[in-house]
């Protein structure tokens, strides 16, 4: 029914062989939670920014929701089952080294905070950035 639910382990020679199992699951969990939080707080910020007529914060809210949706597509495509292409981004990034996700989540988490300095962007973008840091730690590998 769900063919890709348990597939975090990589094949021989692929990325993720040297990362501990608990760190891989932690990265997936934090990424999933951060996607949901970023989408929710981005929607809240969009409403607040529309009422207060703050264009920079409205742009940050839209960007934060886009980043949250992107992270949800990569980490938990089951949340986006209504989209036909939901499995493709997750499968693409599962075949790539961890630093791809680290760079994508790091930049995606910082941009909304740089545009609007508020609590909602700090927590929403900050959690995405933390997920990027976890993937960065996995990219460095074991000593």
Automatic annotation (TrEMBL):
Pfam families with a match to the protein in the record: Cg6151-P (PF10233)
Keyword presence, Transmembrane helix: yes
GO CC entries: presynaptic membrane; synaptic vesicle membrane
TM segment ranges: 29-53, 59-86, 98-115, 121-141
InterPro entries, alphabetized: TVP18/Ca-channel_flower (IPR019365)
Any one Gene Ontology BP term: vesicle-mediated transport
Tagged with keyword Calcium: yes
Subcellular location: Cytoplasmic vesicle, Secretory vesicle, Synaptic vesicle membrane; Presynaptic cell membrane
Any one GO molecular function term: calcium channel activity
Keywords assigned by UniProt, alphabetized: Calcium, Calcium channel, Calcium transport, Cell projection, Cytoplasmic vesicle, Ion channel, Ion transport, Membrane, Transmembrane, Transmembrane helix, Transport
Topology with respect to the bilayer: Multi-pass membrane protein
Family: Belongs to the calcium channel flower family.
The protein's assembly and partners: Homomultimer. Associates with the dally/ magu complex.
Protein name: Calcium channel flower
Provenance organism: Amblyomma americanum (Lone star tick)
């Amino acid at each position: 029914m769900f063919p890709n639910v348990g597939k975090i382990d990589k094949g021989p020679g692929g990325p993720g062989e040297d990362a501990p199992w608990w760190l891989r699951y932690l990265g997936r969990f934090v990424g999933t939670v951060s996607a949901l939080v970023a989408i929710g707080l981005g929607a809240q910020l969009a409403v607040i920014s529309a009422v207060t007529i703050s264009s920079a914060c409205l742009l940050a809210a839209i960007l934060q929701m886009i980043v949250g949706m992107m992270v949800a597509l990569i980490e938990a495509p089951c949340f986006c089952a209504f989209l036909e292409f939901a499995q493709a981004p997750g499968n693409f990034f599962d075949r790539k080294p961890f630093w791809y996700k680290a760079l994508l989540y790091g930049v995606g988490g910082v941009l909304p905070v740089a545009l609007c300095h508020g609590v909602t962007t700090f927590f929403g973008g900050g959690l995405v950035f933390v997920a990027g840091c976890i993937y960065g730690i996995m990219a460095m590998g074991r000593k």
